[in-house]
Amino acid sequence: MSEKTAITPATHAAPPARFSHGVRKGNILQVAGQVGFLPAVEGRAPEVAGPTLREQTLQTFANVKAILEEGGASWDDVMMLRVYLTDVDHFAEMNEIYDEYFGEQNLKAPAAARTTVYVGLPPGLLIEIDALAVLG
Amino acid sequence: MSEKTAITPATHAAPPARFSHGVRKGNILQVAGQVGFLPAVEGRAPEVAGPTLREQTLQTFANVKAILEEGGASWDDVMMLRVYLTDVDHFAEMNEIYDEYFGEQNLKAPAAARTTVYVGLPPGLLIEIDALAVLG
Amino acid sequence: MSEKTAITPATHAAPPARFSHGVRKGNILQVAGQVGFLPAVEGRAPEVAGPTLREQTLQTFANVKAILEEGGASWDDVMMLRVYLTDVDHFAEMNEIYDEYFGEQNLKAPAAARTTVYVGLPPGLLIEIDALAVLG
C-alpha cells in the first residue's frame, strides 16, 4: 500500500479548483498542466512571465521542474511531456527553446517522449505542459 | 505477470469502436474519455444528460466513477484527470461544479492532478474527461 | 532501480527536438505522438503516407506498433490510446479503420481505453496517436 501525496511547491499559488499541482503514489508522479505563471505572490492574482512564447515556455518548464523536485523526482524520471500550444506557427520556435532548455539540464537518462497538439487556452497563455514521471 | 482486464459498467453502452471504457492491469487503471451520456437503454442511441455544462459535467463524473468502481478503484486512487472543454468561457463554471462535486465525495486522499484544455468535440457535447488511477 | 531506455525504431527519423519516440522504464512504456510519416529515408524530409485519413491512420498505427515492438511490447500491453483528429467529421471513418485494423491484430487481451479529441495539427496531418503501455 503506497500513500498518495500532494505536491505543492512554495512557488505555486493554490490551484483554482480542487486539484493538486502534482501527486505521487508509489513510483508514479503526475504533474498537472502548468503554464507560464511567475512564482506566486500572496494576495495577488497569478501573473504570466511575459507575452512571448520564450518567456512562457521557460517559466512553464521551471514550474514543472519545481513539482518534480518537490516530489523527489527530476527531468530524468519523466516519461512523457504533453505540450499544448495555441498556434501551429509556434512549433519550430518551441522546439528551439525545448532543445536549448534540455541541453542545459545535464540529463543522464534519455529524453522523455512527447506529444504536441494545438488547442485553445485562456487568453494570454501560449503554452501548457504536463508530465508523467516514473521514479527509479 | 498481471492480467489486463476490460472494465464495462452495466450503465455504459458498448463503445463505438474496439476500445474499452476502462482497462486495469496490475495496479494501473485507465479510464477512457467519458462524456455526459445517461445510463444506456438497450436499443436506443446514447442520450446526453442535458444541454448545460452542469448536467453534462455531473453525468461525466458519474460515468468516470462507475468505471473506477467497477475496476475496484475510487476517486482517491485517481492521479490525473484530463478535462476537455469546448469553450474557454466554461472554465470558471466547470471549476465551481468540480469543487462542489469533489467536496461531496468524502475524499480521503489528496485531489488528483488535472489538465484542462479547449478542443473540438462532437456536436452537443461540452465536456469530456478521462482518468488515470494507481491502486493502493 | 529500473533503467530508463529510449526506443528508436530503424523506420523512424530522428525526432524534431530532444524527445524520444518511445521510452521504457520498468514495466511502463510510453509512445510519443505518432503521425502518418512513411519509414524515414536518410537525407530526405519526412513524407506523409498520403492525403487521406485511411492512409494516415494505418501508417500511424504502424508507427506506434514499431515503437511498442522495439520496446518489447505489443498492442496487448497498451492501456490507453489518445487519438487526435483535426475534424469531427472524421470520427465515423476513423472508427471504421480502427475496428478493421484491430480486428486484424489478433489481440489476446482486451482492447485499450481511448480518448478522441479534435485539435489543430501541422498542415497536411489529419491524425496523431500516442500510447501508454504496461508490460506484463
UniProtKB/TrEMBL annotation, chains A, B, C:
Q: Which InterPro entries match?
A: RutC-like_sf, YjgF/YER057c/UK114
Keywords from the UniProt entry: Hydrolase
GO terms (molecular function) for this protein are: hydrolase activity
Q: Per its UniProt record, what CDD domains does this chain match?
A: YjgF_YER057c_UK114_family
**EC number(s) given by UniProt:** 3.5.-.-
- The name on file for this protein is RidA family protein
